[in-house]
Design goal:
Helix content is 39%, strand content 20%. The chain is α/β, with parallel strands linked by helices and 366 residues long. The chain has 2 domains: 191 residues, no CATH class; 164 residues, NAD(P)-binding Rossmann-like Domain (Rossmann fold, 3-Layer(aba) Sandwich). The strands form 4 sheets. Strands 5-4-1-3-2-13 form a 6-stranded mixed β-sheet. It has a 6-stranded parallel β-sheet with strand order 8-7-6-9-10-11. Helix 6 crosses helix 11 and helix 7 packs parallel to helix 8. The radius of gyration is 20 Å and the shape is globular.
């Protein structure tokens, strides 16, 4: 049976407490120091993944015990070493490919140094993350009554490896596109790539509020590590597909904005009777798309550096989506702020959006 590995890390203190209840109530500074001292370790053994073709595989979650801020604040060599150690654990368990989860795929050169120091294939999972984000955003928009071909869209974090390709492909599906990130010069380079890809020239801005205020569809894939999208940034009735981990949408949106639909990007149902033997916050059998990409490549026996570095190509996004369909991976419905979104929820949001839009017209005297 073919074997894969996937490297994880805690996204916040809630994740730490989920794995180690004794951390509850402890100061984040103390927990961070303990995690800094901890070595990489095997988190769980995964069984029950079975393709609709009949192929079965097994795998391991390997923990890289850092919190998001440590990946960016600690010396890069120290961070690389712990990720590489987790990859070597995967090798020792017989894995032929290892996936990079969360910030392990963001730090430094986006996995290239990790791959150079391992004897197995490495993938970030970004290709399938992009595919599912686009699929989810379009499906959610249609459920909200938005016609994609007539809509305005925005991509946050458009200079990153996920955001850039999301923007390229999304530009073919919407009427207009705005891209935003922190670097104006890099945004202009991405805008030129988009124009070469689709013939459409997107609007460019570093002002997040300005980018979002008229957007019907938003894909957010920044590496900010915090809730940068505030409630008042969003247009009533819009859809936000939040691909970032930790999420870009602030928790206040769930409390204040009952007239917008926020969905978590990159969640898929894994075929078979899957047992992850760990709780990472989702129902059993539901995985992040970056995890699923590693599984799909293992089922295909494609032990190669697939999604690596900062130049993910649209062709790979299309290919991995086709392979996912072949093996029975599919979107896991819609989830928002850790809860399932029902048809009734969408109808309620649509009605709230209709009321908000009407109130806006009255306030400006239309």
């Amino acid at each position: 049976m073919q074997t894969f590995g996937f490297i994880t890390h805690a996204l916040d203190m809630n994740d730490v407490v989920r794995y180690e209840p004794r951390a509850a109530g402890k100061r984040i500074e103390l927990v961070s120091k303990i995690l800094e001292w901890m070595p990489a370790y095997k988190q769980s053994y995964i069984t029950g993944i079975r393709s609709q073709t009949g192929e079965e595989i097994e795998g391991y979650f390997l923990a890289c015990p850092f919190l998001p801020h440590q990946f960016t604040e600690l010396p890069r060599e120290q961070v690389y070493k712990k990720i590489i150690d987790a990859g070597k654990l995967a090798e020792s368990f017989g894995a032929k490919i290892v996936g990079l989860g969360g910030f392990t795929s963001v730090v430094g050169d986006a996995g290239e140094t990790i791959a150079e120091n391992l004897n197995i294939a490495v993938t970030s999972g970004n290709s399938y993350t992009i595919a599912t984000a686009l699929e989810g955003a379009i499906e959610a928009a249609q459920a909200m009554g938005i016609v994609p071909e007539e809509s305005s869209a925005a991509v946050i974090g458009a200079t990153g490896s996920i955001g850039r390709v999301c923007a390229q492909i999304l530009s073919q599906k919407v009427a207009s596109l705005t891209i935003t990130a922190r670097s104006l010069s890099r945004l202009k380079n991405v805008a030129e790539m988009i124009f070469q890809f689709s013939g459409k020239r997107p609007k460019v801005t570093t002002d997040l509020h300005a980018a979002l205020q008229n957007a019907d569809i938003v894909i957010s894939a920044s590496s900010a590590g915090r809730g940068i999208i505030q409630p008042h940034f969003l247009k009533p009735g819009c859809v936000v597909c939040d691909v970032a981990l930790p999420h870009d949408c602030s928790r206040e949106i769930a409390e204040i904005r009952q007239d917008v639909l926020v969905i978590e990007g990159g969640l898929v149902e894994v075929p078979g009777n899957v047992n992850f033997r760990t709780n990472f916050g989702y129902p059993q059998g539901i995985a992040l798309a970056c995890m699923a990409e590693t599984m799909i490549l293992t089922l295909e026996k494609r032990f190669e550096h697939y999604s690596l570095g900062r130049r993910i190509e649209p062709e790979k996004v299309i290919e991995i989506q086709s392979l996912a369909q072949k093996h029975g991976f599919k979107l896991a419905g819609f989830r928002s702020f850790n809860s399932q979104v029902t048809k009734e929820d969408i109808q309620r949001i649509k009605e709230n959006a209709r009321i908000s839009k009407q109130e806006q017209k009255i306030s400006i005297g239309l």
